[in-house]
Design brief:
Oligomer: single chain
Number of strands: 16
Distance between the termini: 44 Å
Order of helices and strands: EEEEEEEEHEHEHEHHEEEEEHH
Helix content: 10-25%
Radius of gyration: 19 Å
Strand order of the largest sheet: 10-11-9-3-12-15-16
Strand content: 25-35%
Largest sheet: 7 strands, mixed
Number of domains: 1
Structural class: alpha+beta
């Protein structure tokens, strides 16, 4: 058994003020197994990996949520239900965990539908920036993105063109909407998505553990062939439960930004830094965190539960 930091964000119904959404940090015992993950974390930093950070140098979502009731008792996914509720003017989806009331998702209905379509493809790579790769690898990253179901971002209706140089970036086809292009560009490019001072000791422990798994006991000397970062939930270990003091959800687990460099003549990247996502001080950050957790929720549910999105 090992201690792993669990970071929590709380979300409430969309009609509740952002100021009521909060964070807390605490540690929790988890088994030393690859829980809540589709692929082992360190494999993302191998060139031979099908989801290599050298190709998906943007956003990877692979978390699978676990569920608990208000008392912290584990709840099987078969005892979790999605419902379509609201009025014609304000339709929304919500989630019932065992006997709790239906808790509304932060994401609006049309965005949750798009996210569900992406999750149902079984893909993990969401966003990548081929232009960030060394010139000799740009086309290779583009080809990998296209084969994996990503396509060039559509900038019409987005604000990213004025905030980031995102022309030429790729995004999952099902998420190629103004909302998700803006959101993924924010996650990938904006420094405020992460807080380098948050839970620094735990982040450093993760960094050192990853490097040991990749064969590095110290920082490698010599030139690097490539360097960048990837934003992912590989250490989020999402657990979702009804919030005990409100009508929202509590989602334990946060994504992080993993900065890496690839030494020349090596197949494995070296992790330079791990920075956890920051607390939400505005709506975009809340949407970013809610998207990671919502995808983990949807990925945990049986296919029959996701048929609600066929409406």
């Amino acid at each position: 058994m090992k201690r792993v930091l669990w970071l929590t964000f709380l979300w409430f119904a969309a009609t509740v003020a952002l100021a009521q959404s909060g964070f807390d940090e605490h540690s929790r015992m988890i088994p030393e197994v690859n829980q809540n993950k589709l692929v082992p974390p360190h494999t993302l930093f191998l060139q031979v990996s099908p989801y290599s950070a050298m190709d998906y140098r943007g956003v990877i979502m692979q978390g699978i949520a676990r569920f608990e009731d208000e008392q912290g008792t584990p709840v099987e996914a078969d005892d979790v239900a999605l419902k379509s509720m609201g009025s014609e003017e304000d339709p929304y989806y919500c989630i019932v965990i065992k006997e709790s009331t239906c808790r509304r998702f932060v994401l609006e209905r049309q965005h949750l539908v798009a996210l569900a379509r992406f999750v149902r493809t079984g893909k993990l790579g969401v966003y990548t920036a081929p232009k960030d790769a060394p010139l000799k690898r740009t086309q290779e990253v583009q080809r990998t993105a296209a084969v994996s179901g990503l396509e060039p971002v559509r900038l019409k209706g987005t604000s990213v063109i004025t905030r980031f140089v995102s022309v030429g970036d790729y995004i999952a086809k099902d998420l190629n909407t103004p909302f998700f292009v803006d959101l993924m560009a924010y996650i990938d490019y904006d420094e405020s998505f992460v807080d380098p001072h948050r839970a620094h000791e735990e982040a450093e422990a993760i960094r050192m553990s990853l490097n040991r798994s990749l064969g590095y006991l110290k920082e490698p000397a010599g030139p690097s062939a490539d360097s960048s970062w990837v934003n992912s939930d590989i250490h989020a270990y999402f657990t979702v439960s009804p919030h005990p003091e409100g009508e929202g959800l509590r989602c334990e687990g946060l994504p992080a930004r993993y900065s890496w460099t690839l030494p020349e003549e090596r197949e494995a990247g070296y992790i330079r830094a791990v920075n956890f996502a920051a607390r939400p001080s505005e709506e975009t950050q809340l949407h970013a965190l809610a998207t990671f957790c919502s995808a983990a929720i949807l990925r945990a549910l049986p296919e029959s539960a996701l048929e609600i999105f066929n409406e």
